[in-house]
Amino acid sequence: MKKLSSTKLLFTIGVYLMVANGYAQKSASIKKKPNIILIMADDLGYGDVGFTGNKKIITPHLDNMAKEGVVLSNFYAAAPLCSPTRASVLTGRSPFRQGIFAAHTGAMRPGEITIPEYLKKEGYQTGFFGKWHLGWVEPDKVESRGSYSPPWHHGYDETFATKSAVPTWNPTKTPKGWTSWGSMDDGSWGGSIYVENGTPVTDNLEGDDSRIIMDRAIPFIEQSIAEDKPFLATIWFHTPHEPVVAGPEYLAKYPDLPEGQKHLYGCITAMDDQIGRLRDFLKSKNIDENTLIFFTSDNGPSGPITRKGIASAGPFRGNKHLMYEGGLRVPSIALWPKHTQSGLVSNFQSSTVDYLPTILDILDIRAKKKIPLDGVSFKSVILDGNSEERQVPIAAGYKRLYGGTDIYAFVSGDFKICIPNKGDKMMLFNLKKDPGENNDLAEENPELLKKMSAELEKVKDSWRLSNEGNDYQW
């Protein structure tokens, strides 16, 4: 056998090591766990962002995300108001299973298994930043509704949170002209305060609230990078929930709009700037291609400002607190550069209850047995561009029995039944032909109404079993 010279032998070994190292790096890249960022706006209407067709609002960073990622154009909140939807995001379960029927009603139960709890077991650092609204965050502050159940009881390592809403500009001060809940005669804010890892915050609370939140989220991400750990960052903005206030810089961007719309659009643009800041940071750290970002809103736009023509549900009827599409259909984007289908607008029916099963599917994590989920994974939709129809109907609702509110919606394929508001009868709509819900088909198609109503009752029976403790260990 012919022997290799020492020079050729060293060269051959070098080439082999380079190839082996290349395969190793590729294998490591494939196996490396993606970072996850869950971004949610508060009361953002379907029609109040550029990527859904609004020509006046300035949201370039969200619009770029939509172009680079997947727009889920048929995306539902689990309820037409905040707390229930937030519970559904973290658990993949209807808020009715958890006893969180409306805002300030109940709190996240310790028995619920959340996205951060799943991910912590996989080595993730977990951080929460913004509006929690799933329980009190101050242990010694006793109030009439809800109970103490902060983010750090549900899998979050690092937290910067408020219990509920604050002004979108100068969140420690009552806005000029605001006389409703939270207002104080001395000009301070009498509502929620920021608590960081259990301690009330006093510094860096001036100016735009979205910037204040991002000032805490980015250092958490930076620390996770420094420790070479994957992270889950949940960033839930207050924008554009009332009190809606924009700073001077952002008001100036809309000189020709009415005053109320200047503030609404201004604070949304300020939030968009912070999302752009976040994306720039991810790129500067070379982790953007290993970071999956989800963006959505917790429900449709606030009713009072929608009826004044300030906010918009786009082509849909209704607003927050109503079971029409305008209360439930919300803007939604999924972006994981080099992984999600770039520029895809998917009509797949999806919901906030789908986040947990989708994330678990992507990370190849098995959900806990005997814990019924209401969501399904849309992994194949965003990663492969699959256009299959949803097989599991979407059910939503909320109730406040002291006020006589107990209303629901049930979407199965092209058809939807709903009780839009308290006192209304059950209605039936063909969403494919009538997305604006102008033509109630209940009287002309009573058999379909009866069939779908029976299916909804089966779902509600399952919800009741969960709410009464069926899913928890005794």
TrEMBL record:
Boundaries of every Sulfatase N-terminal domain copy: 34-365
Coiled coil: none
PROSITE patterns: SULFATASE_1
Keyword Transcription found: no
Similarity remark: Belongs to the sulfatase family.
Regions that span the bilayer: none
Domain of life: Bacteria
Species whose genome carries this gene: Algibacter miyuki
Protein name: Sulfatase
Keywords, ordered alphabetically: Calcium, Hydrolase, Metal-binding
